[in-house]
Amino acid sequence: MSTIAFLGLGIMGSPMAVNLAKAGHAVVGWNRSPGRADALVAAGGKEAGSIAEAVRGADVVITMVPASPQVEAVAYGPDGILENARPGTLLIDHSSITPQTSVDLAKAAAEKGIRVLDAPVSGGEAGAVEGVLSIMVGGERADFDAARPVFDAVGATVVHCGPHGAGQTVKAANQLIVAVNLQALAEAVVFLEKSGVDLAAALEVLGGGLAGSTVLARKKDGILARDFAPGFKLELHHKDMGIVTDAARTVGATLPAGAVAAQLIASAVARGDGALDHSALLRGVELLSGYGREQGA
Asked: What angle, 0 to 180 degrees and rounded to 10, lies between the N-to-C axes of helices 141-154 and 13-22?
């Protein structure tokens, strides 16, 4: 069992830290805004008042923050990870950031004797709570092997994808697939409802056929209830689509459907839906299909 500093106790980070504590690891949590460590403490973990306090003496440091600027903020500087973690520490970044940020972090950390794995996750809040996340990992194979007890406490599908940055590249592809799936699901829902079909029955049978997907299984109940409490916020998916768009341009890949999905997500954020779950793409299709006029709005 490891001593783990877990930085970032948000929608995803908090249940991940809890699962690590339940697996027997000694977990010390830190969050930029206070008051997010209650679940971890209840599971036997501890709360730190600063990054430096959390990482001193840790075998493993885990970061789970929103984007590249936040990763850089917690990693660099006199109060950051690299200046306060001891040599030999394994830094696992579960955030979804640009591949280049991961490559740069690994290089800077190596100068301090700190090993790094980029290990973004997929599965949303439900996957984090259930400990069944998919984890795509970039970095040295030996470090990946050393991290398996940590990964196994939070994930069900854990794959070494290649060198530093490879995990983030695979995550970008994941977000591309999820975005297009969510948009297709939203369009199907509106089509079904306007056709007068029982939506619950339709989604049930679609889930058992070739149209079935994890997206449909995870999002069906929320869509039926029009409950868009965030498991993964639209504003974060908007950030991720920027990552995949830029990365695809760099390597010369063309993403026609992805470009449309990225614009629709951007539109949803611009309308003020950024804090909702990414399944709230449905609201945009409803708007385009005249739901407000039909309902007297």
From this structure: 90
* Helix, strand, coil percent content, the chain, rounded in steps of 5: 55, 15, 30
Residue with tokens 């001193």: 56
pTM as predicted: 0.90
Active site residues per annotation: 171
137-146: b or e for each residue (b if 16 or more CB lie within 10 Å)?
Answer: bbbeeebbeb
CA distances (Å), 291 to each of 65, 70, 142, 287, in order? Answer: 36, 38, 54, 6
CA distances from 9 to 30, 31, 50 (A): 7, 6, 13
Q: Specify the pLDDT at position 1.
A: 67
d(CA 249, CA 257): 14
Nearest CA to 124 out of 265, 261, 278 is that of: 278
SS3 232: coil
Residues 6 or more apart in contact with residue 276 via CB below 8 angstroms: 228, 229, 230, 233, 234, 268, 283
Neighbours of 109 (CB within 10 A): 22
CA distance 130 to 268: 29
**For the chain, what is the mean pLDDT?**
96
Separation of CA 242 from chain center: 15
Mean pLDDT, to the nearest integer, of 133-155? 98
pLDDT at 297: 38
At residue 296 the predicted structure's pLDDT band, cuts being 50, 70 and 90, is very low
Could you report the per-residue pLDDT of 164-178, keeping only the tens digit for each? 999 999 999 999 999
Whether residue 27 contacts residue 85, with contact meaning beta carbons closer than 8 Å, is answered with no
